[in-house]
Design goal:
Largest sheet of chain A: 9 strands, mixed
Largest sheet of chain B: 2 strands, antiparallel
Strand content of chain B: under 5%
Structural class of chain B: mainly alpha
Strand order of the largest sheet of chain B: 1-2
Helix content of chain B: over 70%
CATH architecture of chain B: Orthogonal Bundle
CATH topology of chain B: MetI-like fold
Strand content of chain A: 15-25%
Distance between the termini of chain A: 78 Å
Oligomer: heterodimer
Radius of gyration of chain B: 23 Å
Number of domains of chain B: 1
Order of helices and strands of chain A: HEHEHEHEEHHEHEHEEHHEHHEH
Radius of gyration of chain A: 22 Å
């Protein structure tokens, strides 16, 4: 076998990249880098295990995670939107947040032709400015030992039998309000009915917990029997031994999609496309499903039957999926938060 | 000599005054849900904060908690401070370290401890239920009680150390002289020690009051979602509501309330001291 000059050079570069991988400030990774703005914790780890290490790094691209909660990263994207060179090449956010950033003109429209996996995206989840990465639906979690007749709807939380046993996570004020709106005949375009419903629930002594974790503890100690929650989180809690089952409420299954997009001022746009493509990889997506209980967003990602039974929606349930009305939310989110804080919780 | 304050002065100007001015400017802007922040020059955010009964209640809660904690610290801290100040033994530095000990643990970690202690299935309720003294758990967590306990545990060392530094400076002979002249210990305390310790009381109270007014982690973690103080309310506006202008206005109202009360309080104690 003859080694050409070109091969020798690229081999040498790869060897150098390996050698210098741990050294800061030294040029490495022949293909440059990609900066991914993401959550830390499970999400960041799973990105590393399923995407960065097996798919993107072998292409010679160095992946840097810029880890923070959504709010600081949103703020960074908004603050940087006028600058020429931004921090992130890939921005990971929930669909509602992504819409807000997109409205502020901070994202590139995606050229789907550059994504080899674009064809596989579930059509309902397609957006011109972001790819869907994982998704889940808002369901009603209940304790099967205490709530003996299986609930069917969010409206069951108003059953006086469950006085003092309905709990909410404070940080999910927005979806909690939506659940109340749906139960009261509202929709994603109209949260108004939630106001009366929430005040009624207040009379039924509904509890509010400061965080999802505090709510989980209350479910575990059986202080709380019913709560609206993301199906994926319910799955994780069940794995953790918390006595809950879920029901896809008949009023509708509100979806949450975690998306990824490329900011206008990204410095490594090509690598960002490579990264987005890797996020749509079928195997990577099943990895997320197994660990976090979120559903794949591509048609060819197949889940094991046991897992699918836990986290998937049946066809009938899928027909009840409702997507957020982003525009309505953006305009009314402040009012929803105000009502939640000042009237419901007061 | 003036050059000596230059490094620290520059740092304060750069890291505090400049961002504060920026924040002051933001507080006059207008909030729009679609455009987030629109340049404006209006007092609407301040007016809204003052007129809204909810925010008035939040400010009153904050003041009540801060004043309550300050008084509690004074009552709890004075005897310990006196004991520490008059201590002659070689254990004195160990005692000082022990008093500082709570500060070695971060606020969040300490709050986690309180949650484990005060929660519905926490240690206290479990023990009381185990002894069949109560049938349902007592509501110890997520209320004003938990917040006051949590904050006092954090700020008490500041009060004790400030007071004890001042008490150390009061010659022991003054107390002996008072006793010699027939004063009972309580009278000696009231007529001699306390008046002389007033500068310490003022300094300690101001320090503790400011810390309490701006408490964030403790009210969030121990007060729960229904209990609101100013600092968490400011955070809510910035991060959850994306409403920077209103958040900035709330921040300045908190700053103004703290400053006014601090100045008035110090002036009152100062006048008493000069008499």
């Amino acid at each position: 076998m003859t080694i050409t000059r070109r091969q020798a050079l690229s081999g040498g570069a790869a060897a150098l990249a390996t050698l210098t991988a741990g050294l800061p400030g030294v040029a490495r990774a022949a293909g440059g880098r990609v900066v991914v703005g993401t959550w830390g914790g499970d999400y960041g780890n799973l990105l590393r295990q399923n995407i960065d290490e097996p798919i993107v790094q072998p292409k010679g691209i160095e992946v840097l995670q810029d880890v923070a909660n959504a709010d600081p990263r949103k703020t960074k994207l908004l603050a940087e939107r006028q600058t020429r060179r931004g921090t992130f090449d890939v921005a990971c956010l929930s669909d509602t947040d992504m819409y807000l950033i997109q409205q502020q003109n901070a994202l590139q429209p995606l050229e789907m032709g550059k994504l080899s996996r674009a064809e596989q995206i579930i059509p309902a989840l397609q957006k011109p400015y972001a790819i869907p990465h994982i998704y889940s639906a808002l369901v009603l979690l209940y304790n099967p030992d205490k709530v003996t007749t299986r609930p069917t709807a969010f409206a069951d939380m108003w059953d006086p039998k469950y006085k003092g046993r309905v709990g909410f996570s404070d940080i999910l004020y927005n979806t909690n309000t939506l659940a109340a709106a749906l139960a009261g005949g509202g929709s994603v375009h109209d949260y108004k009915p939630a106001e009366k419903m929430l005040m009624d629930l207040r009379k039924l002594d509904a509890k509010v917990y400061p965080s999802n974790e505090a709510l989980a503890a209350a479910l575990k100690s059986e202080e709380v029997w019913l709560t609206p929650m993301w199906l994926a989180r319910g799955f994780m809690w069940k794995q953790g031994g918390i006595p809950v089952r879920h029901v896809v409420p008949k009023e509708g299954a509100y979806s949450i999609v975690f998306e990824a997009a490329i900011p206008k001022n990204a410095r490594n746009t090509e690598n960002a496309y490579t990264y987005l493509d890797a996020m749509l990889d079928a195997k990577a997506q099943t990895g997320f499903a197994r660990q976090m209980g979120y559903l794949p967003t591509v048609k060819d990602a197949k889940l094991d039957p046991d897992l699918a039974q836990e986290i998937s929606l049946t066809e009938e349930e899928e027909s009840r999926l409702v997507t957020p009305d982003y525009e309505y939310l953006q305009k009314n989110l402040n009012g929803i938060l105000d009502f939640w804080n000042k009237q419901f919780k007061a | 000599m003036a050059a000596l304050i230059l490094p620290a002065g520059l740092l304060v100007v750069l890291l505090m005054v400049a961002p504060m001015l920026f924040l002051a400017r933001i507080s006059l802007n207008h909030f729009s849900p679609t455009e987030l922040m629109v340049e404006a020059m209006s007092a609407e955010n301040y007016l809204r904060a003052v007129q809204d009964p909810y925010y008035r209640a939040v400010l009153l809660t904050t003041l009540a908690v801060a004043l309550g904690c300050t008084l509690l610290c004074l009552v709890l801290g004075f005897p310990t401070a006196y004991w520490l100040a008059r201590m002659q033994s070689r254990w004195k530095s160990l005692a000082t370290i022990l008093i500082l000990f709570p500060l070695l643990v971060g606020n969040v970690v300490r709050s986690a401890g309180w949650i484990a202690l005060l929660g519905n299935d926490g240690a206290i309720n479990a023990a009381l239920q185990g002894l069949h003294l109560i049938s349902a758990p007592l509501p110890l967590l997520y209320n004003a009680f938990a917040v006051v306990v949590g904050i006092v545990a954090v700020v008490l060392p500041y009060m004790i150390l400030t007071l004890s530094a001042v008490i150390e400076g009061i010659p022991r002979q003054t107390e002996e002289a008072a006793a010699n002249l027939g004063a009972r210990p309580l009278t000696a305390f009231r007529r001699v020690v306390l008046p002389l310790a007033l500068p310490g009381v003022a300094a300690g109270s101001v320090l503790v009051f400011i810390l309490c007014m701006n408490a964030y982690a403790t009210p969030v973690l121990l007060g729960g979602p229904q209990f609101k103080m100013m600092a968490p309310a400011v955070y809510d506006q910035f991060v959850r509501g994306n409403n920077w202008p209103f958040g900035a206005a709330l921040a300045f109202i908190l700053l103004a309330a703290t400053m006014v009360l601090t100045v008035v309080g110090s002036a009152l104690i100062g006048r008493r001291y000069r008499r």
